[in-house]
Structure formats: C-alpha cells, structure tokens
Amino acid sequence: AKEMKMSDAKKIVPPTGPLTYDDVSSVSPALELYTKKTLLGGLWKRPELSSRDRSIVTVAAIIARMQMYEMSIHFALALDNDVKPAELSEVITHLAFYAGWGNAMAAISVAKDLFRQRGIGIDQLPPAKGELLPLNEEAEKQRATQVGNNFGTVSPGLVQNTTDLLFRDLWLRPALAPRDRSLVTVSALIANGQTAQIPYHLNRAMDCGLRQEEAGEVLTHVAFYAGWPCAFSALPVVKDIFEKRTK
Amino acid sequence: AKEMKMSDAKKIVPPTGPLTYDDVSSVSPALELYTKKTLLGGLWKRPELSSRDRSIVTVAAIIARMQMYEMSIHFALALDNDVKPAELSEVITHLAFYAGWGNAMAAISVAKDLFRQRGIGIDQLPPAKGELLPLNEEAEKQRATQVGNNFGTVSPGLVQNTTDLLFRDLWLRPALAPRDRSLVTVSALIANGQTAQIPYHLNRAMDCGLRQEEAGEVLTHVAFYAGWPCAFSALPVVKDIFEKRTK
Amino acid sequence: AKEMKMSDAKKIVPPTGPLTYDDVSSVSPALELYTKKTLLGGLWKRPELSSRDRSIVTVAAIIARMQMYEMSIHFALALDNDVKPAELSEVITHLAFYAGWGNAMAAISVAKDLFRQRGIGIDQLPPAKGELLPLNEEAEKQRATQVGNNFGTVSPGLVQNTTDLLFRDLWLRPALAPRDRSLVTVSALIANGQTAQIPYHLNRAMDCGLRQEEAGEVLTHVAFYAGWPCAFSALPVVKDIFEKRTK
Known about the structure:
Oligomer: homotrimer
Shape of chain A: globular
Largest interface: B-C, 75 and 64 residues
Radius of gyration of chain A: 20 Å
Mean pLDDT of chain A: 94
Order of helices and strands of chain A: HHHHHHHHHHHH
Strand content of chain A: under 5%
C-alpha cells in the first residue's frame, strides 16, 4: 500500500458544478441506469403516491439529510410537480425547526438561485407573519400538559418553545396544508432515523387524510433517498401505528 | 407531472457564497424573521446559558451535523463571545474524535479563513503536544477495567485507543476547561442523536460544574440547530440523569 | 457578547480548495499531528486489517457520512491500495441504496474528477447490467418470506423492491466480492448509527470470510472516521453477534 500524502489532495479540485448523466456514467454506468430506469422511470411512476406528494417527500428527505447535489434537481422538479413556490418555501421553514437551522440554510442557498431564475418574487412567498389556521385548543392543551408534566422541570425552555413556536405558530401557518406539513415531518423523521417521533407525526398525518397506502409508499420512496436502513428502521414503528389505527 | 431531466440541473449553479438576510428572505421571509427575532433576538438572549456557552454549544452542534452554512457565522460569533481562538481550535480537535475526522476537516476548511482574516497565528493555538491536566488515576482505571471486561475481546483496538487517545490524552489537554470539553461532547451527542453516550458525558459535565439549569437549556438551544427531534430524543435521557443526581 | 450580524458572513468566503497539512495546522497543530502520527502512521499501519480493507471501510464510512473533504484523499488512496476502479465505482453504486441517492451523487462529484485525472475509462467500470453471481434461492426465499410476512402489508413497495432491486440484483453484481460488499455495508451502518441492521449484515460478512479479528478492527477504524460514539453504539451489537457465532 502506498503512503498517503496530503499533497496528493492538491491535484484534485473539489466539485463545483451540478451533475449530469455523463458525470454519473463516467463513474458508475450502473447508477446512471438505476437513476433513469429504477428511480425516475420506476419509483416516480408508481401510482401509490402522486408526483406532487413524491416531490414533497423527496424534498423533505434531502433537506433532512443535507444532500446538496439532489437539491437543485428536486426543488425544480417539485415546482414542476405542482408544489407551489410558497409551499416549497414553507417546507424549508418547517425543516429549520425539524431538521435544524443549518439544514434550512443549505436549502435556501440552493432555492434562492432557483427562485431568482424562475422570477419567483416575494408576492409568491408566505408572509413572515399572517393569519393562522384555527387551533384545536383542547388537543393542544392536552399535549402541552402531558409534555409539561413529563419534562417541564427538565428543560422549561424547550417545553415552552415547543408550545409557543411549534404548536401555536409553525404548525398553524397556512402555507402548507396540515396533511402536507405532516407528510414533510414524517419524511424527515424517517430520513434521519428519528423513529421515536414517528408515531405522533404519522398519526397526525393520517388524521389529516394521508391514507395507509400512501404512508406505506412513503417508506418505499424514502428508502431510495435516505437509504434502505432508514426505511427498515421505520417499518416496525409504522406497522405498529397501522395496527393500532385499525382496531 | 413533468419528466425530470438531469439536463435541467445544468441551469442551476451550486451555491458559492455565504448567505445574507436578503438571500434568506428571497426564499422564506418567515425564516428571516424567525432568525432575527426568535433565534438571535430570543434564544440567544435567554439568561439560562451565557453567550459564551451558547457559542460553544452551537459550534459543537453545527460541526457534529456538518452544517457548512452556519460555520462561518458561528465561528466568528464564538470568537466575539469570548471563546478564545485556542478554545475554538480545541473544539474542532475534540470533535475529530467525537464526530468524525471529516467533520473536523470541514470545520477547518472554514476556520482557516477566519483565523487568517483575524491574524490568529500559531502563538494563539494549542500546541500539538504539551503538558496535560492531572488524571484521576483511580477513576480512569475503573473505567478502563469496566470497558475492557465488557468489550476487550470484541475490539481490542477500539478499547485500547479509547484509553490511550481519549482518556489519557485528548481529555487531559488543557486548551479546553473540563467543563467546556464535556459541554462540547454533550452538545455533539444530542445533535447526532447519540443518546446512549449522553449519560456518561452529561454526568461528567455536571461533575465539572455544569448546572442543571444550564444542562436543560442546552436542550432548548440545540433544538434550533439540530432540530426538535434530536432534543426530544435526549429529553427522557436527561430527565433520568437529573433524577438520579438528585437522590 | 457582540450582536451577531449576518453581514459579517459576507467577509468569509466559503471553502473552495482541498485541505493541506498547512491548512490543518493553521487551525489545529494538534490535529495535524494526530492525522500524521495517530491516524496515518498509527491506525493505518495496524495489521488487523489490510490497507485495502481499511480503504474499503474508510470510503464506505465517509460516503455514508458525506464527508466531502475526506473523499478526494481517500478515493485516491483506495485506488493506490489496490481497490480497483470498478470496485470503487461499485462501492458508490451500493451506497446509493444503503446510504441514500444523494450520498452516492456527492461521491460521484468527487470521483469523476479523480477518474478523469487517472484516465479511468468505461472499459474499467462495471457494466450497467451484466451477468450476476449465483443466488442461494433457498436462503433468499426464506428471507423474502419472513420479511413479507412481517411487513408485506405495511409497505408492499419497499418489501418488493428489497427483493427485486437489492437481493436479486445489487447483491449479485460481481463488481464487488460478496465479502467486500458486506464489509462496505457494515461500515456504512456503523458510521450512520444504524445498529438494527448490523446483525444481518455482519453475519453475512463473516459467512463470506470476514474474520472476527477483522470485524473488531472495523470498529477501531470507523471510530476515527465516524466518531467514537458510533463505534461504541455498535460495540454491544457486535459483541452479541460474536458470542452467538461462537456457540
């Protein structure tokens, strides 16, 4: 084995441009074929989820996993798949809270060029503040009380912010339909292996109209973008949720 | 739904510059307001953690999660918040071991420009090798024996390196106060969802002076930078640690 | 504490070039020494794993964790350590499925320049489609039946794709020896903290010839590239596998 020399690194300039199919096939002809046939020509054409939903799921997964090379293509495809610019904007805002501020900033670094390129101006974006969707005060009080009882003394700040910023603000912003906002959340959770939060959010999504067949297909879809292990880790959790909802 | 064409990707040049508030608001006016008001004007002004501690927690979380777009701003802010250059250097060194070599290298790629810009020279950096803090031989022998008994035959190399490189070297480097080094570790563990290691390291942090109120606020803070699910996954673990310490 | 101003970010241009030892020591002389002495001069010279295996493990871990700054160096080192171009190509293809499409694309963005630089043409790459290795039909039917019984109604798409794309296609591509393909998979799982899938894949690797001493050393090695917490989370899982195999 040769000695590894850091100076060798100088000869390789880091990537600067978007990838083309030629780039992919110059390294892996197989991956070019899998992308064209299995992914775009296969997965994306399955009827179990609409193209628009697939775009929502994909955008959420790639932002959650900060996959920069997928963002250009999939943000553009989302807009072409009838995800409104305001909705794409709101997915990014939502994931600042559910995947981390830096993940949202990475998404913005790509989205800003796309929006400028397509002439998407502030009139098409959700306002910073505006009218909120109605809140189920009963359910929210119950949630807040439970979390407060469990963890109110452990991290008062986190518990309070969860109520004030998430459930009484972010989740009530109208720029995403509740079903879609939940779909974004569930997709990000699966992509990041955060199985403990899947039950609450998948139930919420299904209460808002996500059908069981669609939920199962989210796993099929996210497996490609976050990797098979993430999907398989979520499988038993999702199975348990389906079984409980059927009773 | 339109056919996705890889050639569409060519029209979108990948991001090359740092983000400004205008960039953010061109995609999400809401995120611009959340950043200014909720994050900088809210979270960062809470008294439960000092600004300096908040910077340490933030830098650790963003290196652990390799959030490149946050690094420029927060490395600079850390220095402005009285984190010494030597301490910022040492956080990066520490996270090479606790988040992975590539995460540290990503951090260095940003820090080198900041250090050069601010004229921070080698005289301000921790030496490669130097005098170490005193070691509690009794406690270390106990830890090493326990880990050796449990896993010595599974991965002798990992077990030996843990003793030689981490507990008899890295953890004794004086460039970070023990409390701060533990705070870095705990923040990175929460940010990466590595809850199994939180008990040991949070107890160590609190033994070194991190107060319960501060520890709870670390969760409040990391929620923004690593996402709410990471903070909520850590909550029950942290609660359990607090309860055991109170007995 | 100073007010954080987003405008400060403008003064710091994001990283554009590969890192040199001078870059590293300009931030952390310690990390330069740890890299040269502990990592390259220490870990990489340990006999428990061959250099070629170490390269396979490293490449898998850094693709799984999308560590861009390590990719240039380690893809080149892999080729110098007798990993054939076709094998490096196939590692990337494999990890599109096991770490996510975007991770593979990030790897391709680096590999394409290396391949072009070294004049590696399509004749040296695995074909998109070709003859497959023989399949143990009995074992595969058993696996498929078990997974189908458990999860066939939860996500029919995921279950079917697992059979069609992974076990009847990807895993039978000859461009990687079965032992090596399993080694790639195990390394990625450890690096991503996906412990639930480690038993199946580590057993598969050891059935294909990965020795216990080598498997233990994978943990020693991945600890550096994915961070100590990942290795320690995998330790009890690996211990359990070793114990069951010994009976």
